[in-house]
Design brief:
Number of helices: 11
Structural class: alpha+beta
Strand order of the largest sheet: 1-4-5-9-8-7-6
Shape: rod-shaped
Helix content: 25-40%
Bound molecules: 3,4-dihydroxyphenylalanine
Number of strands: 9
């Protein structure tokens, strides 16, 4: 029967074309060409009326079978294609998350100031000193008064000290001298007082930490910097002990070939007081730009603890003597690495910091 043959032909042809349709668009196109309004199968179905009535049931049944099979074949091929396309896409877009990244995450380093601070701690721990901590926010008693600073000492003024809003009368600026006795410590020396108030001699301690001063940052000043305070209190401590200790420290931190020199100076809390210089590491004492042609570089302040400070702290000044010193950590860094500007230490610029 001609119609049955035609139906078979359409079905066979579709089977071939299905295998060749490799995209969903091509498949849809094929579906329209076969089963759409003017599709080949649709057109054949329309010829059913011309079939002899006695053959119609058999031909109709066959035609419906063919249509059902074609529909299923289209759906099956669509499923197959979708699966293949998904697999290809997964293959294309998949990433091995266990592979290392193309760019290595750069490792951070310890900040130069932290390393020098730790180095200083190691030197003094090696001599049996304790490392103690103290408060950043303190009072005028610890920062000035018990350190023997007179009431009218210029360092107490709001120009040189950050006062903290505390119990000032409402509406009044607290930075007027005397209005607030709470401040950001301007030196670590106050930790001497905290320590002596709570510890019986012998005392051998250092206190590294941040200090604050209302200075505008420039090449040589920072409003926030780091000091290491030192304090020794025992019976029979002499200036010779101070000198031996600080000579040893300077050679450890700057090198065995460096000479030291002790110049008289004044600090309210030590008597006698001195400033300690080390010989210039650039010209070795000859005189150069780095040391202002003096051959020496100032590195720390020190002195014998003033008996008045012992009295403020409840330490028997007839029985005990002691020495104290204060080291600027940023200054040590600047001298060691010839840093042209202290602000480099505050920027967090990795190009600079990674060098240490
Ligand atoms: N506190 C001093 C300053 O900030 C440094 C200092 C000098 C500390 C002499 C001391 C010392 O303990 O004896 O400039």
């Amino acid at each position: 029967m001609a119609l049955i043959d035609d139906l078979k032909a359409v079905q066979d042809q579709l089977a071939q074309q299905l295998a060749q349709a490799t995209s969903l668009e091509a498949l849809e196109d094929l579906r329209v060409r076969t089963m759409g309004k003017k599709g080949e199968l649709t057109m054949l179905m329309k010829q059913m009326g011309k079939v002899a009535p006695e053959d119609r049931p058999a031909v109709g049944k066959f035609a419906n079978q063919v249509r059902g099979q074609i529909e299923s074949a289209l759906v099956a091929r669509k499923g197959e294609l979708a699966k293949q396309l998904l697999a290809a896409r997964i293959e294309r877009e998949s990433a091995d998350i266990t592979l290392p990244g193309r760019t290595q995450t750069p490792l951070g380093t310890q900040h130069l100031i932290s390393s020098i601070r730790e180095e200083i701690e190691d030197i003094f721990c090696g001599m049996g000193y304790d490392v103690v901590d103290g408060p950043y926010v303190d009072t005028t008693w610890y920062n000035f008064t018990a350190l023997n600073a007179p009431e009218d000492h210029p360092s107490r003024s709001a120009k040189d000290t950050f006062y903290v809003v505390d119990n000032a009368p409402e509406g009044k600026p607290t930075h007027v001298l005397g209005e607030s006795d709470v401040l950001l410590r301007t030196q670590t020396s106050g930790v001497q007082v905290h320590t002596m108030e709570t510890t019986e001699p012998p005392i051998f301690m250092i206190c590294p930490g941040t200090v604050f001063r209302p200075d505008t940052a420039d090449a040589n000043h920072l409003p926030q910097f780091t000091q290491v305070e030192g304090l020794v209190v025992d019976e029979g401590i002499t200036f010779g002990d101070l000198k031996g200790t600080l000579d040893y420290f300077c050679r450890q931190i700057f090198g065995e070939d460096r000479a030291t020199r002790y110049r008289p100076h004044f600090f309210p809390f030590t008597e006698p007081s001195c400033e300690v210089d080390v010989s210039c590491g650039v010209c070795h004492g000859e005189g150069c730009r780095f040391c202002n042609n003096t051959g020496w570089i100032e590195i720390l302040g020190a002195g014998m603890v003033d008996p008045a400070v012992f009295d403020f702290c409840g330490i028997d000044s007839k029985r005990y003597t002691g020495f104290a010193f204060g080291i600027g950590v940023e200054r040590v860094a600047a001298l060691r690495y010839d840093l042209p500007d202290l602000r480099m230490l505050m920027t967090g610029d990795m190009r600079f910091l990674c060098q240490f």
